[in-house]
Specification:
single chain, mainly beta, six-stranded antiparallel β-sheet, 2 helices, 12 strands
């Protein structure tokens, strides 16, 4: 293993700036999976009281416009909320694109990490981009989205458009 800096070996893209989800659904930016085998979607949630927390994964056949559809996966995802010091792994029982995380984050701050593999996309229909949408929380709730692409095909990663 070579001694590389993080920015040389991972594609990082801001999916959505920190913003209040109260009365405001958020459509995340699209991440181009044609440059990477695996994507970690990291969502940071602020503290709140009784907020709805809905996350939807989507796939697209273009960087903008084009066709879009839900990205249904059953990959393990991870969350860490409130005072927790480690992540909890969650294994979905079936493929899904819509996640209701209110039981975890309705009144807590924390992180959730979803992982998408390039083979999860509908490549037969030329889908090559991934995004995440956050639903209106119906209560004050700040959230931000970051994308981290693993195993980029070209290096250094900071020179590759994600």
């Amino acid at each position: 293993m070579s001694n590389e800096y993080f920015a040389e070996k991972a594609l990082v893209k801001q999916g959505a700036v920190p913003q209040d989800l109260n009365g405001n659904a958020v459509t995340g930016a699209r991440f181009d999976m044609s440059n990477s085998d695996r994507l970690a979607i990291v969502i940071s949630f602020g503290d709140s009281t009784g907020a709805a927390v809905g996350v939807t994964l989507q796939q697209h056949d273009a960087a903008t416009s084009g066709n879009s559809k839900n990205l249904e996966i059953s990959n393990t995802y991870y969350h860490k909320a409130g005072a927790a010091t480690s992540f909890t792994a969650v294994d979905p029982s079936s493929d899904t694109a819509v996640y209701d995380l209110a039981s975890v984050f309705a009144a807590e701050e924390g992180l959730v990490i979803f992982e998408v593999l390039s083979e999860d996309l509908d490549v037969n229909a030329n889908f090559s981009h991934v995004s995440v949408n956050l639903a209106d929380s119906t209560a004050a709730k700040i959230a931000a989205i970051e994308y981290i692409g693993h195993f980029p095909y070209k290096k250094p990663a900071y020179e590759v458009e994600a």
